[in-house]
Amino acid sequence: MKLLVNFIQILIIGVIVYPIYYVWETQHIDNFCREITPGMYDKKLIELVKEYHVTLIGFDENEADKGKWLAQVKAKSSFSDYRCEIGGIANKVAHASIMEEK
């Protein structure tokens, strides 16, 4: 019985904390994505990644200046694949936008 009570308490805490974490994280990614501008150099993008403490997926600094590239920063808390998608050509950013797939 005590185990069931502990489980319910943990469940209630999770139900309260998760929405707060979700909103915080998606807002954090939104703010990061708004800072990215077309024409920005990849070095500045890397500085923003470090400043915002996010993980950039799919970007390789050594391969970036060889052609088109596509990278993203994903929300870990989202069940809907919430992310900032960043595309570029050579060593410059071409676009950045928020994507959410359900």
What do these coordinates show?
This protein has 102 residues and is an alpha+beta fold. It has 3 helices and 3 strands, in the order αααβββ. A 3-stranded antiparallel β-sheet has the order 1-2-3, covered by helices on one side. The longest helix has 34 residues, at 2-35.
> Which quaternary structure do these chains form?
single chain
Task: Please give the share of residues in helix.
Answer: 40-55%
SSE order, one letter for each helix or strand: HHHEEE
Helix-and-strand structural type = alpha+beta
What does the overall shape look like? Answer: elongated
- How many individual β-strands? 3
Mean pLDDT, as a whole number?
88
Put simply, the count of helices is 3
Question: How is the secondary structure organized here?
Answer:
Layout: H1 2-35, H2 42-52, H3 61-64, E1 68-74, E2 82-89, E3 92-100
Antiparallel strand pairs: 1-2, 2-3
Brief summary:
By secondary structure, this protein is α+β, with helices and mostly antiparallel strands. 48% of the residues lie in helices and 24% in strands.
What descriptors fit this protein?
about 100 residues, alpha+beta, three-stranded antiparallel β-sheet, 3 helices, about 50% helix
